[in-house]
Amino acid sequence: MPFTYAIHPRTQLVLTVASGMVTDAELKALARAQLDDPALPTRRREFCSLEGVTEAAVTRAGLQALVEHDLHHVPRHESYRLTIAAPTDVSFGLARMYQMMVEPVLPECSVFREQAEALRWLDASAEEIEFIRGHLDLKPPQ
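User: That's the sequence. What structure does it adopt?
Assistant: Structure tokens below.
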């Protein structure tokens, strides 16, 4: 599966990492896995890194299905802030399309090309950045 995620044991920050080829089916599988995971916090802050994506075979219909899923299930989360680090033109474009489509239910969603900017927006602590660094090759914030 090109998506993995981990939960910071103390702060409950969710780190989602995409790698390799991402398709509509993988987006759907991630949404289902996170929905079924009782360990995911209801008050949620999530950092999603698309830096490892090598190819994207995601369609508008696939993004719309993800948005429909979120419209139905995000209300179970009392508070949800999502930031996406998407450095390539393709990943940035797809992430921005998702952001615009999901805005009615998830107004606190941001998309950045640089990890440091995404982490600043999320107000990630030094402890959380170290946690993320353990899962990614993260450059120190400038």
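The CA atoms of residues 70 and 76 lie 10 Å apart.
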